[in-house]
Amino acid sequence: AQSVSQHNHHVILSEAASLELGCNYSYGGTVNLFWYVQYPGQHLQLLLKYFSGDPLVKGIKGFEAEFIKSKFSFNLRKPSVQWSDTAEYFCAVSLSGTYKYIFGTGTRLKVLA
Amino acid sequence: GAGVSQSPRYKVTKRGQDVALRCDPISGHVSLYWYRQALGQGPEFLTYFNYEAQQDKSGLPNDRFSAERPEGSISTLTIQRTEQRDSAMYRCASSNSQGNGEKLFFGSGTQLSVL
Asked: In this predicted model, what pLDDT tens digit does every residue of A51-106 receive, in sequence order?
């Protein structure tokens, strides 16, 4: 069965630290990859997505993610986090050409001011 | 509407009662999803609609759960004879693609607590 793994459940960083959140998926076919974010008190919203082309994708607020097909990974990065990045981050995979969307368990990020 | 709207935002009910959760997707969005999210977990797929057709209900845990979208717009998720284990955040999402893995727009969710 398809699955999405996020290795870090809770991450605490100081402002200006660099961030990398891991995401691995298991599926042998073509996938679309997403990172969603939920800020406190808000709904889930798209941070960035990868469908095809350049495997390094840039999203909002300085986030980026790199698709490494050989590793089935789509890690999220940000060079310098801010207090306002405190949120829960979800990696998601959709099976290309289908409606199926699978989410990881999420990573809670807390950035200390 | 401007976004996906879910109601109620919070629902507290007693075990054994029925509940109905409503989702009003973005106007024109053909795809509608229901997810359930337990504490500390990611969203878990429940069911998917393409217009009014329920194309996949494989994620519904048991026959106490049902969903409909009779006119291809508003959807209702109904849980009959609620149990404490049904307590969770229920999220609705819509998309303007016909199930081609496009971006999902989420509502704020309904937090269900079964006492």
From this structure: 889 999 999 899 999 999 999 999 999 999 999 999 999 999 988 778 888 999 99
Q: Which of A47, A103, A107 to mutate to test the interface with B (most CBs of B within 10 A)?
A: A103
Separation between Cα atoms, residue A99 and residue B106, nearest integer Å: 15
Inter-chain residue contact A9 with B91, CB threshold 8 Å = no
> Which residue carries 């845990």 as its tokens?
B61
Spatial separation of the C-alpha atoms in residues B1 and B67, rounded to whole Å:
21
Under the banding of pLDDT at 50, 70 and 90, the label for residue B101 is low
∠ CA A19-A23-A26, rounded to 5°: 170
Specify whether the CB–CB gap between A100 and A4 falls below 8 A.
no
- pLDDT at residue A67 in the model: 95
Burial B74-103 (b: 16+ CB within 10 A, else e): ebebebeebeeebbbbbbbbbbeeebebbe
**Secondary structure of residue A3 in the 3-state scheme:** strand
User: Min CA distance, A11 vs chain B (Å)?
Assistant: 14
Residues listed for chain B = 115
Closest-CA residue of B relative to A93 is B101
